[in-house]
Design goal:
Elements (H helix, E strand, L loop, with lengths): L11 H30 L6 E5 L9 E5 L4 H5 L7 H7 L5 E5 L5 H9 L4 E5 L3 H13 L8 E4 L2 E2 L7 E2 L12 E5 L5 H6 L10 E7 L2 H13 L3 E5 L18 E6 L4
Parallel strand pairs: 3-4, 3-8, 4-5, 6-7, 8-9
Antiparallel strand pairs: 1-2, 9-11, 10-11
Length: 259
């Protein structure tokens, strides 16, 4: 048997060069964001009001938006990369779970443009939840029996402040699409979905906020038999970036059956 050559570590100067390159990229991206934002604000009035989204899967939804900070939502460019997967994974679903519902565009999508018989929306931030309530009312969706909202966190276990996805199993019908945007708690939520992820009809759409979390999510889901797809950021994000304060922000799709 041929002996494997000893593994060599990356030369120190190359490691430093890569760190410097990433730092320079982040600096340039944030600079571009500031310049574009300042130019836009010269022409866009301050304040938010009710607006109709112009394009994308959220097209024609009524939402309370400020064009100074939410122009991409209004134009249908916000998280544009995920739209094709969102449409494909939401086909024929009977349940949708929106973890980190925020202002509610995905909750609105599940209610208005899918076959979901039940939609669960989790948003623990009370101020943001008020915006969600307003956007639901704008679209005539307040008080629906199909929608169940919760101010509890979703996590690895259940207590008085949080709930695990495994505890929702008796209330879910398949196929079920789970959208998750939780700013760093992705792995913890997946730890609370061990039994759920044994089901065949589960589909995931997860926003990951670091390379380490992305790898951890892919590993957990792959071990449960999911096919996974990392959705790369569009090339034009270098010109028209989203206003993000983290180095990585992209989506991961996962499914078992054909989707």
């Amino acid at each position: 048997m041929k002996e494997r050559p000893p593994e060599t570590s990356e030369p120190e100067h190359l490691g430093k060069s890569r760190i410097q390159a990433r730092s320079l990229y982040r600096s340039m991206t944030f600079t571009n964001m500031r310049v574009l934002s300042e130019l836009k604000n010269l022409f866009v009035p301050p304040g938010s009001r009710e607006r109709t989204i112009l394009a994308g899967p959220f097209k024609e939804f009524q939402m309370q938006l400020s064009l100074r900070s939410q122009t991409q939502i209004y134009l249908g460019l916000w998280e544009r990369e995920v739209y094709s997967c969102l449409r494909r994974l939401s086909q024929d679903i009977r349940t949708a779970v929106d973890i980190g519902a925020a202002r509610g565009e995905y909750t609105l999508f599940f209610l208005k443009k899918t076959t979901a018989e039940k939609v669960y929306a989790f948003e623990p931030d009370s101020a943001v939840s008020e915006v969600l309530s307003h956007n639901l009312a704008l679209n005539g969706l307040s008080g629906l029996d199909r929608l169940e909202r919760s101010a509890r966190f979703v996590g690895a276990y259940c207590d008085h402040r949080q709930v695990s996805l495994d505890s929702l199993l008796p209330y879910l019908n398949w196929p079920c699409l789970i959208k998750m945007d939780v700013d760093g708690y992705e792995e913890e939520i997946l730890k609370g979905a061990n039994v759920l992820n044994l089901q065949h009809g589960v589909r995931w759409l997860i926003e990951t906020h670091s390379k380490e979390l992305e790898l951890a999510c892919v590993r957990i889901l792959s071990e449960r038999g999911f096919r996974t797809k990392v959705i790369p950021n569009a090339w034009w994000r270098a010109i028209l970036p989203e206003q993000r304060l983290v180095e990585q922000n992209r989506w991961l799709a996962a499914w078992k059956e054909r989707a």
